Amino acid sequence: MAGMSADRAKLLGELLTEVVEQHGCRIPDEAWGPYHKLVKQPYAELCMVRSLAHGEPEILLTHRKDEYWAGWHIPGSMWRVKSKGFQEACEAVSRQELDGAAVRFVTELYTYPWSDHPYGNPISHVCIAVGEVPEKEDQKYFSKLTLPLREIVVNHHHDFAWDVLSFLETDRWKSLMR
């Protein structure tokens, strides 16, 4: 590696071997930040949708306030589970962010590799799902007309939400829901 001495490269190799052999491939919390910047990580963006008989299609956003974000976003998480597929990844996000509400994965709209994430190197899998997720003060459904554009804090989530809502108007979506 350019700029890294042979001794440091050897040490890095030893530490990575230790992670595999002694920690079951789980990166220790203290090393998570640098690791996350180095290695592309899959993220499941759980786009819970509903289409009410009386109105426009809607997408669920949750309000987040932590050291990284403060505002509305699409529920999502790094794909940490040894998953068999999208359904299991969506269920894991639901357990973490939606009180374990029952969700059913319908389709992946697309993947998006971030080049400007503030602390990591994610590849978002924009997953569309349906289920009975109740609204709360920090968990609401929005249509294109009510989407809080200026309050969506994760920069690409605005685009994800808009693209999902647009997809819900297509014949392809209607055929998936038959």
Q: Rg to the nearest angstrom?
A: 19 Å
**What is the assembly state of the chains in this entry?**
single chain
Low-confidence stretches: none
Could you say which structural class the secondary elements and strand pairing correspond to? Answer: alpha+beta
By CATH, the superfamily of the largest domain comes out as Nucleoside Triphosphate Pyrophosphohydrolase
Give the total of domains: 2
Give the proportion of residues in helices: 25-40%
Number of helices: 5
Largest sheet: 7 strands, mixed
How many beta-strand elements? 7
Strand percentage lies at: 25-35%
- Which class of the largest domain in CATH terms? Alpha Beta
CATH topology of the largest domain: Nucleoside Triphosphate Pyrophosphohydrolase
Overview of the structural elements:
This is Nudix hydrolase domain-containing protein. This protein folds into two domains: 1-38, no CATH class; 40-176, Nucleoside Triphosphate Pyrophosphohydrolase (Alpha-Beta Complex). Strands 1, 2, 3, 4, 5, 6 and 7 form a seven-stranded mixed beta sheet that branches. The mean pLDDT is 89. The chain is built from five helices and seven strands, in the order ααββββαβββαα. The longest helix is centred in the first third of the chain and has 18 residues, at 6-23. By secondary structure, the protein is of the alpha+beta class. It has helices at residues 6-23, 29-38, 86-97, 155-167, 171-176; strands at 41-51, 57-65, 70-73, 76-78, 103-113, 122-131, 139-142.
